[in-house]
Amino acid sequence: MIIQNKRLFSRQTAISRRLLWGFILFSGTSYSVFTISFNAVKFTQNPTSIVTETVMHHHLIMPNIYVCPNSQHSKWRIEHNYPDHNRLYRYISTFYGNGEDHHGEELNLTRFDDIPLDEFLANTAPNLKPLRCKFNMRDCPAPTYRLTRYGICQYYSFDNSTVSIPGPQSSLILYVAYNNSDTTTGYALSKSALFHDFSDQKHDVMLMSQSTTVLANRLTQVTLYPQEYTYLKPHCGTKKLDFFKQYTTEECHVECSYKAVMDKCKCWPPYFPIYKKEYPMCTFSEHARCISKEYNSFNYSTCGDCPKPCHDLVFNRNVEYGEFHEPIQRLIKKYKLTKRL
Ligand SMILES: *[C@@H]1O[C@H](CO)[C@@H](O)[C@H](O)[C@H]1NC(C)=O
Ligand SMILES: *[C@@H]1O[C@H](CO)[C@@H](O)[C@H](O)[C@H]1NC(C)=O
Ligand SMILES: *[C@@H]1O[C@H](CO)[C@@H](O)[C@H](O)[C@H]1NC(C)=O
Ligand SMILES: *[C@@H]1O[C@H](CO)[C@@H](O)[C@H](O)[C@H]1NC(C)=O
Question: Principal localization (predicted)?
Answer without folding.
Answer: membrane
